[in-house]
Amino acid sequence: MSLVIAYMSTISLLMLLGWWLVSWLLLRSGAKWTTKNRKITDECHLGHTTKYPLITMDSEQKQVLDMLQRPFRLPTQRERQLRSRRAVAADLLSTLEKSRSESHPIVFEVGTRVGGSEPPPQRLTLARSIPRGTVFSIFVKSHRLAAKELCDYFMEASSVQELRQRVEEVRGLVNEKLFIFALSFVIIRKPEMRHLRLPSIVEIFPCMFVPVTTVSEMEQEARKSTPDQEIVVTEYGPEFSSTHLKPEHRVAYWREDYGINSHHWHWHLVYPVDLGVMRDRKGELFFYMHQQMLARYDMDRLSVGLNRVQKLSNWRIPIPDGYFPKLTINNAGQTWGSRQDNSLVQDYRREDFGLLPFDVSELEQWHSRIMDAIHQGYLVDHDGNQTRLTDNVKPPEKRGIDLLGDTVEADSSISLNSLFYGDLHNMGHVVISAIHDPDYAHRENLGVMSDTATAMRDPVFYRWHKYIDDIFQEYKVIQPPYTTEELSLSSVEVVSVAVESQGQKNQLITGWSTRDFEASRGLDFNADKPVMVRLTHLNHHPFVYSIKLQAANSGSLPKEVTVRIFMAPKLNERGVEMSFMEQRLLWAEMDRFTHDLKPGLNHILRSSTSSSITNSNEFTFRDLEERPNPDNPGAPENTLFNFCGCGWPQHMLLPRGKQEGMPFELFVMVTDWNQDKVAQPDGACSCSAAASFCGILDALYPDARPMGFPFDRRPMPMLLNRPVGRASDLTRLSNIAMQDITITFTNAQITQ
Questions:
Q1: DSSP label at 115?
Q2: Integer Cα distance of 696 and 489 in angstroms
Q3: Cβ neighbours of 396 (radius 10 Å)
Q4: What's the Rg (C-alpha) of the chain?
Q5: Alpha carbon distance 267, 456 (integer Å)
Q6: 600 by DSSP, 3-state: which?
Q7: E strand map for 432-543
Q8: pLDDT digits over 12-56, tens only?
Q9: Catalytic site residue 409?
Q10: Element (H, E) at 79
Q11: What SS3 string covers 626-691?
Q12: Whole-model pTM?
C-alpha cells in the first residue's frame, strides 16, 4: 500500500512540475502578469463588473498594425523562440494529459522537443502548400480551400493577444498574401475585434500598386537621404505605367487608381467565395457592384473619346490589347506575367496550382447551361429539383438574380449546383491570367487577372466582366417591367433638383490630386525614416445636392421616404441623346438615403461626401497609430474611424468629364420607405458605410427593392398613355425629376 501511495505521489509531483514548466514557458512567450487589478465590463451583462488581473499589452490596434507590417519579412529570432517555446509547452501538455488519462508514470522519449526546433502547426496542410513569394489567387479553388483553413485557424483565437500568438506561429510558413488575406478576414469578422481597423492595402503591399521602377527609385532615394531629412518621398504619376500610343492607355489613370483596386480587394474580402460566408443577397450584390463598376468605367471611356467596353464573348479569336503590369509579386522582384497583343485564350495545362487540365470548351459548356436555365425559367439543384428564376418573390424566397449571382460566382456552399453549372467567373479569371504561359513551359507567373487587388488594372478585366454582366442582363430584360404603382409615389412631388459646388450651380469640376502612402510599412528599404510614395489620382471639388420636395402627408406627421440619386452621360459616342435601353446600363448610383418629410415644402441639402456607395477615408498605418482614443473605440472622437473599409473611393465618385465640359443627367427618385424598409435584427448597425455596394456587416441588405431599381429592367411600353422612349419620360411621375449638369475636367491640381 505504501508503494502505491509513493507511486501516486511521484506522479502528482511530476504533473505539478510539468504544469509549472508549461506556465513558465507561456509566460516567457510574451504574457506578463501585473499585480494591478482593473475593472472589466461584460458586454452581455452590463450591470455586473468583476475584477480580474489583466495581462499588460500594447493597444490592440497597435498589435494588429504590427502583425500587418512588412509581410515579406521572415520571423525574427524572438518570434522563432516564442514558436519553439509554445511547441515545447504543447508537447508537455499532451504528455501530461496522456499520462493522467492512462495513469502511468511520465516518460519523456528521446525525440521529445526541449527547445530550439521550429515545427509548423500540425494542421494547415493546405495553407502551407502555397509557397511564399508566389501568386495567391482567390479565383483558384485550391487556394480558396487553403484560405479557409488558415482563416478557421485564426478565427479560433478568442482575443487579439491569442491571435498575435497564432500569427507568430505561422509567419514565415505561409504565403504572404494568403497570410494578409486571412488575418484581415478575421479582424473584420470577429465581434470582439470589430473596433479594430485595417490600414490601406496600398501600404501593406506597395509593389501591387506601383511599378518596379518606382520601387527601385524609392530604394535609391532612401540610400541618398541625409540625416536631417525626416521623410523620403517619391512620386508616381500622372503618366502611370503606359504611353498614349494605344487608345486604351487613355484610361490608365482609372484602371490603375489605388482606390478602385483597393475597393475591389476589400469587397472580395467582405464577400469571399467558398469561405462559408453567408451574407444576405450576396449573389445579387456580386452582380450589382460589378455592373456599377462597368457603368463608371464606360463613363470615363466616353470622357476621353473611347467607345464603351465590348464584352469578351468569343474565346476563339485573339484579344487585341495586351497588358504589361510592371508590378512585382514579392520582395525578390518576381514580376507578374504579361500578355502580348493579339493573344489567344488557350486550354489550361499548368500544374503549379493543383488544378486539373481545363479546356476553354468547359467555359462554353457552363455558359450554355446557365443560359438554358435563364430561358427555361429555373435552375436544377444537385437532386434534380427545379428552382424557379424570378425577381417577383417575397422573402424568404430568393430572387432569381440572387440565385444566378451565386451560380455564376460559383460559391460551392450556396450555389444550387456548382458541379453542373461550373465555376464560370473564377475560372475565366484563371484562364485569362495564364494566357501567356498556359502549360507553364516558361515558368512564368500568372497575370494580374489572378489577384483581386490587381485585376482591375488590366483592360481585359472589363471585357470579361462585361461578358459576365451580359449573362445577368439576359435574365433582367425578361423580367416584367415595373408598373406605374411600383414606380410612383403620388403624395410627393420633386419640385427641383440641382448640384452646387464652388459657388456654381449644376457645374462640377474634376482634376488631379495626390495622396501619400508610407511604402516602408510594407517593404523594407533599410532606412531609418519613413519612405513615402506620392500617388496621383483623379479627384473633384466636393458638391451638394439641393433637392426641393413637396409632401402632401395625411395629417401633420412626417413621412419617411427613400431618396435615390443616379447619374449618366447624356450623349453616346456619336454625340446623340440615348434611348432608355441604350442608357439603361450607364446609370451609376450616386447616393441612396432616407429622409423624414414634413407636410409642405422640404429642402434637402446632401453632401457628396455622405454618399451611400463611397468609403470617404482610407486610413494609413500612421492614421491608425494616431487614432484619438484607441483604448475606448466607442468614444465620440473616434466616430471618423467607425467604418469597415469597404466602399467605392470618394475621389472617384465623379467621372473625369471633358475639358470643354461634358453633359450628364442627374436622376432623382423618391420612394415610400414603408415599401423599401427591411426588418433588421436587433443591434445591427456596425459597418454600414457604403451600404449600396457593401451591404451591412451584421444585418440584411438595407433596401427591399431590387438592386439598381428602377434601371435594372426594361421600361414599360406606355406611361400615363404615352410611350416611354427615354429616361426623361419617367418624370411624368411626380416623385421623379431629372436635371442636366456639366462636368468639366481642368487638368489642374485640386487641393482638398
A1: S
A2: 27
A3: 5
A4: 29
A5: 13
A6: strand
A7: 492-501, 504-505, 507-518, 531-540
A8: 544 545 555 544 444 444 443 333 333 222 323 223 333 323 333
A9: yes
A10: helix 77-102
A11: CCCCCCCCCCHHHHHHCCCCCCEEHHHCCCCCECCCEEEEEEEEEEEHHHHCCCCCCCCCCCCCCH
A12: 0.87
